[in-house]
């Protein structure tokens, strides 16, 4: 299972927002590149980068910084935030960034199918949800689209991987919502990476245990910056062998709380 450290960039600095709220911001570093180098030195394979200014304005703002990160470290980079048209997707992928993460624009079924076909496995969809409903535009806009409806749409688009964030848990350091993640895994055959609330090595172990249910990875943010989790230890935990196979039953689908 992959452990993926997160670097959220706002105003050129590394920050974390509590539950996605811009007025609840903590700055952790003035240098995103130095932070990326720190995570790279610990042997991570992939770093999740978010252009928070881009997510909130609808256009790429910090791409030059992120391009420098991609060109100067070994781990692959996936980037989300402000990628709202096909030209932006191409610009990101031509900048040495491995994958583009589509959030707000993923609600446009024709668009997501088009970029999935053109860019193949270099597109990831971000599903950011609170109270079972999808949120967009840097998490500030709540839609009336339920998680289950969103999944039905994405599964027909050709997308293979989805990053699922429980906004209510993000930045709270209270632990992930394991039952919701289990339900999410039962509701889809997509490759799922979970985020939100991961705050201890015990949380890492609990998520690692969901590998048998199909969980492919976890994105860790604030807990790394607050020294609640040692990234090297988390990586070691997730290298351990797991057993068991993911499977759906009629009962799984009937009892799904995401519907």
Description:
- The protein is α/β, with parallel strands linked by helices and 259 residues long.
- It has one domain: Aldolase class I (TIM Barrel, Alpha-Beta Barrel), CATH 3.20.20.70.
- It is built from eleven helices and twelve strands.
- The chain has an eight-stranded parallel β-barrel with strand order 1-4-5-6-7-10-11-12, surrounded by seven helices.
- A hairpin with a 2-residue loop joins strand 1 and strand 2.
- The radius of gyration is 17 Å and the shape is globular.
What does this entry show, briefly?
This protein is of the alpha/beta class and 259 residues long. It has eleven helices and twelve strands.
- Under CATH, the topology can be stated as TIM Barrel
Second CATH tier, the architecture: Alpha-Beta Barrel
Strands in their spatial order, largest beta sheet: 1-4-5-6-7-10-11-12
Specify Rg, calculated over alpha carbons: 17 Å
CATH superfamily: Aldolase class I
- Spatial gap, N to C terminus: 27 Å
Going by helix content, strand content and strand pairing, the class is alpha/beta
Q: Mind summarizing the main beta sheet?
A: 8 strands, parallel, barrel
Report the total helices.
Answer: 11
Low-confidence stretches: 248-254
**Overall 3D form:** globular
